[in-house]
From TrEMBL, chain A:
It is found in: Membrane. This is Succinate dehydrogenase cytochrome b556 subunit. Keywords: Heme, Iron, Membrane, Metal-binding, Transmembrane, Transmembrane helix. One of its GO terms (molecular function) is metal ion binding.
Length: 142, 266, 118
């Protein structure tokens, strides 16, 4: 332990301890980075078109493996969660959906951690799971 | 603390209670837990060690009570800061079983654990044992100008006092409950890696003054917080509001504050 | 970047790019769904997609919006992980450069494919 008790990246990247909102924060970061990674790969993937049909097809084959399918399924899930939770955040972070400030009274339930936000987080996770199942269905021809 | 036993002469309970009120007898329900206190002096020690004390507690015993018992009867050198013992002064914030809480406001019984581990708060510089330094938080707090800004003053002629309706007060009173305990900054994920971040404490106070209709310092303050390590470091993880012991709900204040910068509020 | 722009302007861009991108990504995915996933990925149909100018514009818009959004997101995270003048400048200009390079690289595909230079 150093003199400054900064938790550092491990504190930032630890989704536990503080409820579903902290989990959503963590998922938002991970999915954002994951999507950026996919996006760069995707731009590279489509650029193979310029080298003709053979190059394009061999590029597509990379995702025709089990690992490729898992990766694409994750991308679908990340995309749906990031979008759903992103819309929630854009609304909440603009100051909407909290009601009015009021005199705090014990036991002090914070209105920023309200049901609306929690529900949106759970719905985003749920939709992501559904989309992943749909994606798996398409990829494995069910 | 005398638990039962014979009372000294003259202090026996009167046999005739007569008109005296009868109080329900409080049964001592003492349980015992192990209190683990982090000991570390950065000037002398290389690594923190934990001291362990068996402490008996009642339903109402707070973590601060337990620490003080250990300090008074076992090890005087334990460094702990406290003052009011009633969640008013903001001195006794520390990590209790992994989460930042006020030691004086946390009852051992509510922790539901046989072992209570107390450590200094995260994301603050350590002074010694359970005591962390607040200089950085206080100077950041000052930076957002935590006072009413306006040209005239209540004592200038013509104005006796600045009147506010109860509705006006309602707009900021929640945020003025802040006791500067720093728990919110300690829980914040951005603060964990970025000490230059203003942090939930300071941002909530920026909102407290901007929302006060006596104040005219809005533009000044918005400029201060609209910086790289300013308000946009908040990603609404809500952990600050999760731990705030006073119902300030800093996360709400911050999002309302962002409304001004994004043009949704005037 | 920061000297010419307030952080709130950058955040407005971050939100706006995301919001507009939602619509375009939906179009992009719907193209797959309506054509049938494996058919839509056939070389010939992909080239045909690019040759439709309105759709090529959608692709280009998506490319720009998401690059801006994604690399600004990366910048936000990196600036919160570590601080310091040199590091912060490196991150800011590094992300800006990466963003421009990716947009240029993707635009090359879109322009060449839509003009039939394959
Ligand atoms: C199209 C729908 C999208 C929406 C509605 C959306 C929305 C958002 C929002 C609101 C944030 C800010 C979160 C915060 O304040 O913490 C954000 C962050 C981010 N987004 Fe997106 N986004 C979308 C797509 C994407 C895509 C496709 C990528 C990848 C290229 C991406 C990468 C990122 C990154 C890296 C961050 C930073 C993460 C963070 O600060 O927590 N986003 N997004
Ligand atoms: C279901 C998954 C996806 C599939 C199968 C897919 C497939 C394709 C294909 C075949 C193209 C070539 C143009 C066309 O025929 O439309 C393309 C281009 C593109 N896609 Fe996707 N895509 C997917 C998801 C995404 C997502 C989630 C994004 C945004 C984050 C995205 C962004 C782009 C962009 C910007 C281009 C243009 C790239 C360029 O030509 O430089 N795609 N995609
Ligand atoms: S906002 Fe709450 S947690 Fe933060 S310093 Fe004030 S009282 Fe403490
Ligand atoms: S001793 Fe004052 S807040 Fe705990």
């Amino acid at each position: 332990m150093e003199k400054d008790r900064k938790e550092g990246i491990r504190g930032m990247a630890n989704p536990g301890r503080y409820g579903i909102e902290r989990v959503a924060y963590w998922l938002m970061r991970i999915t954002g980075l994951g999507l950026l990674f996919y996006f760069i790969g995707h731009i590279y993937e489509t650029s193979s078109l310029l080298d003709g049909k053979a190059a394009w097809n061999s590029m597509l084959e990379l995702t025709q493996t089990t690992e490729g399918h898992i990766f694409l399924t994750l991308v679908i899930g990340m995309c749906v969660f990031h979008t759903g939770n992103g819309i929630r955040l854009m609304i909440a972070q603009s100051g909407f959906g909290f009601g009015k400030p009021r005199r705090p009274d014990y036991p002090y339930t914070p209105s920023s951690l309200n049901m609306k936000n929690k529900l949106c987080i759970y719905v985003s996770i749920g939709l992501a799971a559904l989309a992943m199942m749909y994606g798996l269905g398409v990829m494995y021809d069910v | 603390m005398t638990k039962g036993g014979a009372l000294p002469k003259g202090f026996e309970s009167p046999s005739d209670l007569g008109s005296q009120e009868k109080y329900e007898e409080v049964k001592p329900s003492s349980k015992t837990m192990t209190l683990r206190i982090s000991k570390f002096n950065p000037d002398k020690d290389h690594a923190p060690t934990f001291l362990e004390f068996p402490v008996s507690y009642e339903k109402w015993t707070t973590v601060l009570d337990a620490i003080l018992e250990a300090k008074n009867y076992h090890d005087h050198s334990i460094g702990v800061r406290y003052s009011c013992r009633q969640a008013m002064c903001g001195s006794c914030g520390m990590n209790i079983n992994g989460k930042p809480r006020l030691a004086c406001f946390t009852k051992i019984s509510e922790l539901d654990s046989d072992v209570v581990t107390v450590e200094p708060m995260n994301n603050f510089p350590l002074i010694r044992d359970l005591v962390v330094g607040f200089e950085r938080m206080f100077s950041t707090h000052k930076r957002i100008k935590p006072y009413i800004i306006r040209e005239d003053s209540e004592i200038s002629s013509g104005t006796k006092e600045f009147l506010q309706t109860p509705e006006d007060v309602e707009k900021y009173i929640q945020f003025s409950s802040c006791i500067k305990c720093g728990l919110c900054n300690s829980a914040c994920p951005t603060m964990a890696a970025d000490s230059t971040f203003i942090g939930p404490q300071g941002l909530a106070q920026a909102y407290r003054y901007i929302a006060d209709n006596r104040d005219q310092g809005k533009d000044e303050r918005l400029k201060i917080i609209d910086e790289r390590h300013g308000i946009w470091g908040c990603h609404f993880a809500g952990s600050c509001s999760q731990v705030c012991p006073k119902g300030v709900d800093p996360a709400m204040g911050i999002q309302l504050l962002r409304g001004y910068l994004l043009g949704y509020r005037k | 970047m920061s000297s010419i722009m307030r952080e709130s302007h950058i955040m407005k861009i971050h939100y706006l790019t995301a919001l507009v991108a939602v619509g375009f990504v939906i179009i992009h995915i719907m193209v797959r769904v309506t054509q049938g996933f494996s058919n839509s990925l056939e070389f010939e149909s992909v080239i045909a997609n690019y040759k439709s100018i309105p759709y090529a514009v959608v692709l280009e818009a998506m490319l720009i919006l998401i690059s801006v959004h994604g690399f600004n997101g990366l910048r936000i995270i990196l600036l919160e992980i570590k601080q310091g003048r040199v590091y912060e400048n490196a991150v800011t200009y590094g992300c800006l450069a990466a963003m421009i390079i990716l947009i240029a690289y993707g635009s090359r595909t879109i322009i060449m494919a839509s003009m039939g230079m394959v």
